[in-house]
Amino acid sequence: MAAMEFSQSGATQKASSKGSPFQNVLDSAVTALNDSQRASSQDAYRLAYGDVDNLAEIMINTLKAETMIQTTVQITTRVVAAYKEIMNIQV
Predict the structure, then answer these.
(1) Orientation angle between helical segments 55-87 and 21-48, nearest 10 degrees
(2) How far apart are CA 78 and CA 75, in angstroms?
(3) Running DSSP on this structure, what letter comes out for residue 19?
(4) What is the pTM of this model?
(5) Distance separating alpha carbons of residues 86 and 80, to the nearest angstrom
(6) Residue ranges, the chain, pLDDT below 70
């Protein structure tokens, strides 16, 4: 899993870049999730065909993918709950 880097601080953002910093973070998280799932699927394929040299690496990749999925579900749930709470605020 690649570490996320934040190149801009606070609310400052260059006008030439697309999207908000929050959107960029979400996009990179989804990309990392997809890459992790792809690696786990390839490892499962290699395991089924007996092309495995290091079983521990396969288990680590599988657990990373599972953890990333659980984290994504939790974040999605919390974002939806926060959105609903904001929408219920009386103005």
Answers:
(1) 150
(2) 5
(3) S
(4) 0.62
(5) 10
(6) 1-18
